[in-house]
Amino acid sequence: MHGRIAENTHVSAPWAIGFAVCVALLLCATPAAAEPGWVDKYVELQLRTGAGSNFRIIGTVKTGDRVDILSREEAWTQVALPDGKRGWIPAGYLKAEAPPEARLAETEEELRKLKIEFETVTADASRLRTDHDEVAARDQQQSEQIKQLTMENLELKTGPRWPEWITGASILSVGMLLGALLRGSASRRPSPRIRL
User: Fold this and answer.
1) Which helix (H) or strand (E) holds 60?
2) Quick check: helix, strand or coil at residue 88?
3) Are 55 and 38 in contact (CB under 8 A)?
4) Topology (CATH level 3) of domain 35-98
5) Mean pLDDT of 117-135
6) pTM for the whole thing?
């Protein structure tokens, strides 16, 4: 029994070590989330290939530009631009929030999108109201047609009533005529009277 436990521990130990190494490699390989930053003040900074003014210039960033901060050194900050370009700029020119001009532009863009969305929703609501009115009118028309068809169906099931009324009146008239004739003939017959 003890031999089996030791054997299982021996077999599972390499798997556990391998799993731990894989997890560690994945954690190390995953890049850290970049911290957003915006260029502060009224400046235009040169984007360089390395942390120093002796490195080659590969672009510029200016006030209000958004960058992702990748790493920081004493006097330089490595950033990534929205187009994917990476480089170094002098430290101390980035803020954690966008400057008022950038926030205003962003707010105006959001307002423009909201206006378009509002116009779309208003048009959809108007179209839905029109559709609802059309459906209500069709529903009213169909209700009236159903009432009319129900009445016609009832008439077809029961048939016209006037022949029954004429037949009843004829029977009643013939009965009254027969009654009158029988009464008249009964009054003409001599009544048998017993005489004493």
Assistant:
1) strand 57-62
2) strand
3) no
4) SH3 type barrels. (2.30.30)
5) 94
6) 0.40
Domain boundaries, the chain: 35-98, 99-157
Closest-CA residue to 90 (of 123, 57, 113, 131):
57
The residue assigned the tokens 């009832």 is 154
In Å, how far are 79, 87, 154 from 83, measured between CA atoms? 12, 12, 78
Angle at alpha carbon of residue 70, lines to 90 and 39, rounded to 5°: 45
**Of 58, 51, 59, 32, whose CA–CA distance to 91 is shortest?**
51
pLDDT tens, residue by residue, 33-61: 678 777 766 678 889 999 998 999 999 99
Q: Which amino acid is present at 59?
A: G
pLDDT one-digit tens code per residue, 88-123: 999 888 888 877 777 788 899 999 999 999 999 999
Share above pLDDT 90 across residues of the chain, in percent, rounded to a whole number = 37
> What is d(CA 124, CA 40) in angstroms, rounded to the nearest whole number?
43
